[in-house]
Amino acid sequence: MAIVTVPKKSCAVNPLKMSQPIGGALAFMGVRKSMPLLHGSQGCTSFGLVLFVRHFKEAIPMQTTAMSEVATVLGGYENVEQAILNIYTRTKPEMIGICSTGVTETKGDDVDGYIRLIREKHPQFKDFPLVYVSTPDFKDAFQDGWEKTVAKMVQVLVKPALGTPKDESRVTVLPGCHLTPGDLDELRTIIEDFGLKPSFLPDLASSLDGHIPEDFSPTTIGGISVEEIATLGEAAHTICIGAQMRRAGEAMEKKTGVPFTLFERLCGLAPNDAFIMHLSQISRRPVPLKYRRQRGQLVDAMLDGHFHLGGRKVAMGAEPDLLFDVGSFLHEMGAHLVAAVTTTPSPVLERLPADEVLIGDLEDLETRAKERGGDLLVTHSHGRQAAARLCIPFYRIGIPMFDRLGAGHLLSVGYRGTRDLVFHMANLVMADHEAHHEPTPETWALDRADGHGAAAPTSH
Fold first, then answer.
1. Phi first, then psi: what are they for 213, rounded to 5°?
2. Is Nucleus among the key words of this record (predicted)?
3. Whether the bond into 202 is cis, omega within 30 of 0
4. pTM summary value
5. Where are the domains of the chain?
6. How far apart, in whole angstroms, are the C-alpha atoms of residue 354 and residue 125?
């Protein structure tokens, strides 16, 4: 059992945390032809836009209400109204998702009231999907913004379906923000191999997977449609991935009567065994032979990787669900989580196999890694300087990952994803060992003054 603590620092020196609004905006990007709208200053939106462009290396649809100092003091109704009208007229979206920011939350803008006035004033918005989520960036973090946004989309967009017949072949999947588009593609393949038809909300696998669209679109170029979201109550099963999705699962159950199954982890052997068996039970089909083979490959990879990851002292910083998922698996591989830092409280943190979990920043992570002899750093790209100062291998995970390609296609779920994670981390450790510990001709000590003779052993 880990002890969750909060440091008493007056500021974040090297931030690990990202804000709620951009977490909510990313969730809206998993809906087809949607436009995320941040209600705040232009700088709030610009920051999120640059972060996502650098991470996904794709065009990112995001707009702002462009609140000025005067508008912030007097109230933002006119800015919200004009932004919605401009987006609706110029980009022809199927949904506009609105996230608040710190400046408008501090003022206390009643955005729900604004939306009601806009619907009364402009008949074209009477039934148009306008989804507003309160996501002040002066509290909580990226994962919280995603969690609230998915739950709100369920509450607003899914049609009530209590007591209606259910399609036993349909499955609603509510994925957490710690899963990449590549993870969602892998999950879709696994679920479909059991003869089931999955619907992902949100579905980043078809909107931010790096494909080139046939035509330019100012809105999202893929994702689940608003029409499909409305029919999710017809599915007979709901699967939530990550503890953060419990709220959305409960909202779905309340509105449709469909109970949900929560999988807090999908990285590792036992979590995937449970997931595969669940799919076999709800589909009433045996496990396909390909997954029996993939399971054997993972077990073999774990045996091979244990020689390099076992005993390794890991320092990891990530959002709570990602920290719990990958950190727990590294513990199962024999590694020791000597430093664990996260961004926001979560019920899973106390069950992390570490002595302490700190809600802090990357400075805290670096300090603890140095004090406790950490020899592998795991976090997003902003940890690269800390790894260089500590002279230890650095494995990039989470958002943002701007100094490597393919961030959206990294896998950590399923037997294959877990296997690949083992190989990538073990290879990183092996490469570091070779670079710092293997003798080379330049490090040979010669036993004769004339420079000839056998090499004497050296220590490192």
1. -75, 160
2. no
3. yes
4. 0.92
5. 20-157, 167-288, 294-434
6. 51
